[in-house]
Specification:
Keywords: Cytoplasm, Golgi apparatus, Immunity, Innate immunity, Phosphoprotein, Signal transduction inhibitor. By secondary structure, this protein is α+β, with helices and mostly antiparallel strands. The protein folds into four domains: about 1-150, Alpha-D-Glucose-1,6-Bisphosphate, Chain A, domain 4 (2-Layer Sandwich); about 220-285, Helicase, Ruva Protein, domain 3, CATH 1.10.8.20; about 290-485, Phosphatidylinositol Transfer Protein Sec14p (3-Layer(aba) Sandwich), CATH 3.40.525; about 505-550 and about 570-620 and about 640-655, Jelly Rolls. About 30% of the residues lie in helices and about 25% in strands. The chain is built from 18 helices and 22 strands. It has helices at about 45-50, 120-150, 190, 220-225, 230-250, 255-265, 270-285, 290-295, 300-305, 330-335, 340-365, 385-405, 420-425, 435, 490-500, 630-635, 655-660, 665; strands at about 15-25, 30-40, 55-65, 70-80, 85-95, 105-115, 310-315, 320-325, 370-375, 410-415, 440-445, 505-510, 515-520, 525-535, 540-545, 555, 570, 585, 590-595, 600-605, 610-615, 645-655. The strands form five sheets. A six-stranded antiparallel beta sheet has the order 1-2-3-4-5-6, with helices on one face. Strand 9 (about 370-375), helix 12 and strand 10 (about 410-415) form a beta-alpha-beta unit. Helix 5 (about 230-250) packs across helix 6 (about 255-265). Mean pLDDT is about 75; it is low at about 165-220, about 495-500, about 555-565, about 620-640 and about 660-694.
Amino acid sequence: AYERRFPTCPLIPMFVASDTVSEYKSEDEAIHVIERRCKLDIDAPRLLKKIAGVDYVYFVQKNSLNRRERTLHIEAYNETFSNRVIINEHCSYTVHPDNEDWTCFEQSASLDIKSFFGFESTVEKIAMKQYTSNIKKGKEIIEYYLKQLEEEGITFVPRWTPPVTCKSESSTSHTRRPVSPAINIPESATKEGLNNKEILNTSSSPSEPTAGTPDDKLDADYIKRYLGDLTPMQESCLIRLRQWLQETHKGKIPKDEHILRFLRARDFNIDKAREILCQSLTWRKQHQVDYILDTWNPPQVLQDYYAGGWHHHDKDGRPLYVLRLGQMDTKGLVRALGEEALLRYVLSINEEGLRRCEENTKVFGRPISSWTCLVDLEGLNMRHLWRPGVKALLRIIEVVEANYPETLGRLLILRAPRVFPVLWTLVSPFIDDNTRKKFLIYAGNDYQGPGGLLDYIDKEIIPDFLGGECMCEVPEGGLVPKSLYRTAEELENEDIKLWTETIYQSASVFKGAPHEVLIQIVDASSVITWDFDVCKGDIVFNIFHSKRAPQPPKKDSLGAHSITSPGGNNVQLIDKVWQLGRDYSMVESPLICKEGESVQGSHVTRWPGFYILQWKFHNMPACATTNLPRVDDVLASLQVSSHKCKVMYYTEVIGSEDFRGSMTSLESSHSGFSQLSAATTSSSQSHSSSMISR
């Protein structure tokens, strides 16, 4: 089916023609290698083609078919502009080691633009656009030709067998190429609606134990016991996303159940699920959410007046949370505690919910990954529509939606009064469509009739305030005494205290606007330590020393870069008139850090003075062979979004005598991403991406 796309393919308009350069077949016909020169009509601006002096670009593609090992390897590289741009691509089709009905597909590519007439940034965008487009069409094209073969009556190709006249070769001498579990080719794949963007560089040897509860993640009993019903497509998505996390976060990954929540939240679109999951892992680390149940005690005001709590489980075994919203003084709680304390309390409730889901999975012997929430609106009135209270509620919903997807199995809203539609109009736009489908709303006493509470909760555990026989220990709420109210200043200070307990800070890095941190050293031989995560983009990390203090920090002056939130500050310390070697010196070699990497390290200072830690945007090598103006530099300020990086960092200065004792632990340090990975991390697979410098 793959060979049918040559010499040209109508499904790939940019693929104009191809010529065979060389071809080789082994005597036993097991090996077939063919090399072609392909002509492509790249969708690029006319001006760029005119400057480059070409209308078409040429690639060399080498296809190696091994019928003995049942593999097809495809390698391609550019012939046009090979001295300026280097493009390499590798694809492979192999048979799944554990299921011969599955075809594994792997794809990886690299792009290195050395120089291109000052249009490096433009060429990079064009290349990425073309490559992404090809990935999207890859599965569609192979299925097109498979269907074409079926229409011609070709539904089966006999396996290769050694010719009778030849001496049989031991097939066991050939080592099976490591492959990653991948998607199934048959047409059932389309019915599952799997997004076809391929994840780059996701190969992993099946011989190595994969981090998780069982060693074999394809084990049907494990899936049924802990994950629930999964189609082959969904199972493949889970495996591939987990492998990507293992490679990126060096073994520190969440449990399969948690990864699956993010996949379900994005309909098993791997790219989208990966994006929100990585953002959530960074958020958990920044605010130390993993430790909230162990380290944070809710204020007494919350314990007395927050009318919510856990109450047994529903008929499906889901933990049941009861919230008497109508009895709760939301205005009083916000005035007494502020938004941050309320948000943190809701986070602790969600963390407790995750823990209870794990416990119920063990108790009931089936996967339970979500909980049921019962909200009683008896007493809800216009007082609950107080604007700051609604604002706090919307923020809480936003944070929970982003970091706890697919944890709400069902929401039962009881005794909804006339004012409820007003509140629902304000809140519903912030709730995900999939979540909204889980809402069941009952007005008055409708919950007592058919289709009501008894359909979802056993009669024995219906709370007493709803006419049941079970005593519910949820606080009754009530008005918060005004004597407990805080002033705006007090609340602001309290908010800062609550949310700066994290030792990490966030910073934005732009092209031409690095982020810099000043550290003053009084005693020589002190040790500067750092721990940072590259959350977005690629950066270069530098350490400088100066005998004189730089000017007071100034915010990035580019209007488009103005950052006001604490999660994205940008500070520049090194004055533009300073010269390297005269006003300041470099004390460590620059370190290029890729997106997703976690870096820990240290530097023993040789002199007192001022040390500057710098995170700088990683530029492609500048064009040294042309005097043409660099277009991407000129347009940098207009294309800020494509030249933005983000880091999360922590620095500390330690006396050398104190540091030696912790040297071993620093050298073996890992990313420190979410503690959700605690039960699924295999120590044999924990690899550090850190750099230790002295």
